[in-house]
Amino acid sequence: MPTRRAILAAMAAALAGPAMAAPRLQLMMVRRRGCVYCAQWDREIAPVYASHPEGRAAPLLTVDLDGPYPDGLALARRPWLTPTFILLQDGVEMVRFEGYPGRDRFFDVLRDMLAQAAG
Description:
By secondary structure, the protein is of the alpha+beta class. The protein has helices at residues 4-20, 36-44, 53-57, 106-118; strands at 25-31, 60-64, 84-89, 92-98.
């Protein structure tokens, strides 16, 4: 039978759990129909994105330039160039990169973005 101390510890852990959770990172890709660089990203990066450590650290969220955007976003400014990659932490913009740097540099740029967000 559980002791009173064990029950209280379990309750405290359950209550502290959400507050102690790591911040949620996402990479929001803002794109538009007809964007040739977005199509190039789709061919070169999209098939392997989720298998890279950076892709696992910041799951991808795609949004059309004209919206709709997810509720609760806090962006420094509205995107106007496609593609734009915005690293979000719990919906708040941490860092952004405008344009597609190409297959050879994309993950290096994303790694730098993640390092900047980490402080």
